[in-house]
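Example record

One chain of 350 residues, shown exactly as stored in the release files.
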Amino acid sequence: MSLPDKQWAQVVEKKGGPPVYKQIAVPKPGPDEILVKIRYSGVCHTDLHAMKGDWPLPLKLPLVGGHEGAGVVVAKGELVNEFELGDHAGIKWLNGACMTCEFCRQGEEPLCPNPQLSGYTVDGSFQQYAIGKAALSSNIPKDVALDAVAPILCAGLTVYKGLKESGIRPGQTVAIVGAGGGLGSLALQYAKAMGLQVVAIDGGDEKKAMCEKLGAKTYVDFTKSKDVVEDVKAATLDGLGAHAVILLAVSEGPFQQAAGYVRSHGSIVAIGLPAHAYLKAPVFNTVVRMINIKGSYVGNRQDSVEAIEFFARGLIHAPFKTVPLKDLPQVFELMEQGKIAGRYVLDVPQ
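Predicted structure tokens for this chain:
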């Protein structure tokens, strides 16, 4: 297959941005890499953090952002056996890992101390052609719509991993904080598909209607509730609290509340990353009630396979709106204003 020398991309040339829509060279895959012709790329809030250099990670500059890229394999290195030309593939946040450290050997490659992160430490999917390590890229079934599956590569995978990390079992109750948001709506669907009962926690009647439509057993509106802790407990079996709490909130307050309504021997899983926030819980209650408090990051290779499989079976529907790649700056503006419902997916020119 003949490949062009140049391609269109959104390039962050200086910390803080904005991204510049320009032509750059088409990269060539290394021995263990694939080159994916990107058809669609979701836009995640992490992409905005990347442009601003908000996190204590080495920021590549100039940078092509994006880590929810779905497309077609058009070239591959000589060591790649996982993909053939023409296969559909996904470029995710975890672009590469050393595969030799203790974490990688145990299938915990997201914890690798030397990761390659799409759209942060290496160029990502806001371009026509993107590179990914074959071992960490996702195989996408050819009967799955590439625009619809793009948000699953980060948002869907992240919440699915959090539910697995909670240790919750079918029939038990999970409280999802921020259930009416983009991540929350996916977490609710994965929870339902896993046979869990969901107590959705968020604010407003619009989010209530959406959560109930997606299968929430109960909706607790924190803007109207006089006592969120008691309302959540009342919605659970025997009033003993949720077996697990999934924290997707963008503010610190809910992180402090969770210990009040999680069931004894239950799990609190922090996924959301509110700025400068801390997790706090009473030591006495945490000990005598044997509460498990933990964080959950992105999923590993097997988690990715499972998250996509749930989607391919028609059990997960991520609401999204498609706009051209050139409109990325406007998407970032809406994101900063808090005006995005669901996910924006960039249509990459072919």
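Notes: The first strand starts at residue 6 and ends at 12.
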